[in-house]
Amino acid sequence: MNDLPLQGLVVLEFSQYLSGPSAGLRLADLGARVIKIERPGAGDAGRKLAIKNLWADESSLLFHTINRNKESFTANLKDPHDLAIVKKLIGKADVLIHNFRPGVMEKTGLGYPTVKEINPQLIYAEISGYGKEGPWKSKPGQDLLLQSMGGLAYTTGNGSNGPVPFGIAVADILAGAQLVQGIIAALIRRQKKGIGALIGISMMEALLDFQFELLTTYYTSGEQPQRSYSNNGHPLLSAPYGIYQTADGYIALAMMDIKVLAKAIHCKMLEEFSNERAFAQRDEIKAILAEHLSFEPTTYWLAGLQKEGLWAMEVFDWEKMMNHEACKALGMEQVIKIAERRIITTRCPIRMNGEKLYADKPAPKLGEHNEKVHEELGVRS
What we know:
16% strand; alpha/beta; Rossmann fold
């Protein structure tokens, strides 16, 4: 698609692993030119982080999924010559992103006060694990550790289990997405007032914001959220909210009237419960439901539930989801070519004027664009 909204903007990405690169990816999808500044010889540590030992080329498949549509420029920030080139590049950039621990960029001479002198209109955006102050500021900003320390693991799974983490790097992705929101807001202000900005987000703050509903309830009541003993879906919601096993799979039940539910699935035992008691007696209700729903297949239950207009859906695995016509209609898949390989990944979920945003340019090889950047800057390598 031509004329993307961020076309013409230059973003320098001093980032590794997931949070910072995910922010850079979204900006690239929206048209920005994103240049990864990487260490010579090693590069982004995510290049060697292979999930299930999957590789695309000399870099991991994970690296390619989060760094497609970018350029790579290698520079040793401890070398005065390389640092001078990077500063020259900063002078021409619109946005700088980094996700290093507090103090790291300052030690290289690229903290915000220094960079602001080079380019006062620059949007300087940083992600940390726990912020710049407080006793946790130097702790590793790793997703599982953050989910554990941020209370999120106590919202998932059943009350009969211990804490359960999300199955994805939710802190990384949320922090990256929120950083993009801050960057775009700062770019709009710069367009109006001609000034730059320092944008900061910590992964911990992103997770706390993610839990605003639960935390507001806790602030008000002073009580910890309690997961239902079984079939938990949300610690603040009453029965039947949750996922239940059927004779041939699983079914998800959202908010619904207990009396109507009892009628839809022909469950006499549920008829004695009222909606007013659906939270206080949710474990009892869910135990009845779990046993009742186990005797018939998912399609049987869905027919009765959906006839009554109740919110219920089958629980899909990835294969079933991707083969369903509803998922195919979204067109979320795109192909990137890496050497002789075709890698299928997801596209940007945003649509512009009804058009889907595809970008099939693969992640860059380490230092692939050094010569191009040197020529643009008019410097010798």
